[in-house]
Amino acid sequence: MVDQRPPLSSVNDFATWEPVLRLMLAGGTERNAARSVHVAGRISQFGWSLALPRRMSSTERIAVEDIQRALSRGGFTEIAFRAEVQPDGRATLGLVWPSPVVEAAVGYPDLGVLVLVDGSLAEPWRRIPESGLGAASAPSADLELLERTLRERLPDAIGATEDEIAAVEARLGIVLSDELKVLYGVTRARWEDWGEDYEAADRVSSAVGCELFGLDDLYSIDAEVRHPGWKHASMEAGSTPSDARVQSLAGSTGWIAFGTNGGDEFAVDLTPGPAGHTGQVILVDHEQSIGAELIASSLTDFVLDRMRAEGGNRRQDQLPVVARVGNDGLQTIQAAAHPAVEVLSIGACDGAPFSLAPVTGLPRLRTLTAFPGTLVDPLEVAGLAELEFLELGIQEWRALLDAGAVPSTLKAAAIKVPDQNHLPVVAVANEILALWDRPQIVQTLLEGNLGPAV
Predict the structure, then answer these.
(1) Residue 84 forms beta bridges with which residues?
(2) β-bridge mates for residue 281, sequence order
(3) Residue 132: is it exposed, middle or buried by C-beta count within 10 angstroms (0-12/13-18/19+)?
(4) Which pLDDT tens digit goes with each residue over 159-211?
(5) Residue 299: CB partners within 8 Å, gap ≥ 6?
């Protein structure tokens, strides 16, 4: 195994971590109760994820900043750590170094997600648009009215030639809508056309209704760019009902982004939903990773400020494809068993563990997360033939590994450790990675003493 630790960096010294460990233990009661305490977190050069009993003071913040500087000197962007502290103060600190096979879970102190297949994405982000669902252009699409309105608002604009528009179509691999061709036939929105007139861009934005991209800057909304990482993506799903105007996708070659409101993207939709229109205008929210909101039935409506009053498609959490079982959701697995279910999440529960028998063989079930201790028989996981993401506790993973029953269909995996005893996690994670011949994770163990609890 290649040791990836930064050479001679103080981040390897227990003394560097001692102030952070004391900070995380401050105010805790477990040490006073003569029990060992487990803490875990993640620190990067630009931030941290620490379970703290209170807000850090400026003096306490220095302890974290010392580690950030040590990471910078060692050439590492971040490091995960977990520690076990005995009642007498003896402490074992595990430092988990960054790995190309671990996708850090932003906002979570745990190990992160094991990426078993290089470059893999969750299924909704691999989904391509269905073609031919929507009708032709909306009745409100009026090429003459659109061109006349734009020329009245932008009498001195320089428009694109047919050859320039054809070049963009060749680059994108798609034919632009007639309305987009009219828009850029009036103004190609190039900065060099405006010379020293710095207010020209504002005039174009006012005329069109958004900050307009230049003709050469048009692009298709890329699903991969919107992928939020496996931790979150594995729990999302989307479907396109028969009354949907916009397909529930992460991206489409037919979503041609032409402008922005300063954060979100406006796009002409050439792959609409069953009840939509080709060429409708949608808003792709930068805070969402699936779907888009219908803004106007046509670009003509958009420019003339004839916006739709209703919002976008129904959200995925209203669909039956995502099921949550436990204290905060459904009470039985049977209630979640449905041919369309894609995601099953079993949370903490007060009753007996659950059997997976009711969902065995379901054709679309691709994600299973189960809180430790909630499965009556972890080996029933082997009956879920379409799983691509699996999150279980250490004991459940141990059962699957020992039985040689880890599903070969997985593309990513995670280990849930609710009590923060993360020290054994890396060994189990490396066994999982070995099944896919993936690089091993490097963990450094440091010993120290924080003194007995006061």
Answers:
(1) 38, 92
(2) 268, 296
(3) exposed
(4) 999 999 999 999 999 999 999 999 999 998 888 887 777 788 889 899 999 99
(5) 141, 146, 177, 179, 180, 183, 268, 279, 281
CB atoms near residue 422 (< 10 Å): 25
Q: How far apart are the C-alpha atoms of 200 and 281, rounded to whole Å? A: 24
CA dihedral for 326, 328, 331, 337, sign (positive or negative): negative
Side chain identity at residue 59, one-letter code:
T
Written as six digits, the tokens of 125 are 């982000």
Other Cβ atoms less than 10 A from the Cβ of 431: the count is 16
Cβ-based neighbour number of residue 220 at 10 Å: 17
Whether residue 12 is predicted with pLDDT greater than 90 in this model: the reply is no
Instruction: Measure the CA–CA gap between 142 and 5, rounded to whole angstroms.
Output: 63
Other beta carbons within 10 angstroms of residue 137's beta carbon come to: 20
How far apart (Å, rounded) are the C-alpha atoms in residues 259 and 445? 51
Candidates 153, 220, 147, 139; CA nearest to 184 is 147
Per the CB < 8 A criterion, the answer to whether 381 and 398 are in contact is: no
* Residues 279 and 134 sit within 8 Å (Cβ to Cβ): no
What residues have CB less than 8 Å from 162, skipping those under 6 apart? none
User: Distance between CA 94 and CA 80 in Å, rounded?
Assistant: 8
Pairing of strands 443-449, 90-96: antiparallel
Q: Is the pLDDT of residue 311 over 50?
A: no
What CA–CA distance (Å, rounded) separates 264 from 243? 25
SS (H, E, C) 60-105: HHHHHHHHHHHHHHHCCCEEEEEEEECCCCEEEEEEECCCCCEECC
| 3-state per-residue secondary structure call for 269-326 | ECCCCCCCECCEEEEECCCCCCCCEEEECCHHHHHCCCCCCCCCCCCHHHCCCEEEEC
**How far is it, in rounded angstroms, from Cα 89 to Cα 237?**
46
Cα dihedral 120, 124, 125, 126 sign: positive
CB distance 248 to 290 below 8 Å? yes
Tokens of 192: 């060099």
- Going by the DSSP 8-state scheme, the letter that residue 210 receives in this structure is S
pLDDT tens-digit readout, 97-132: 888 898 876 555 567 899 999 999 999 999 888 876
Amino acid identity, position 91: A
Lookup result for tokens 């009993």: 53
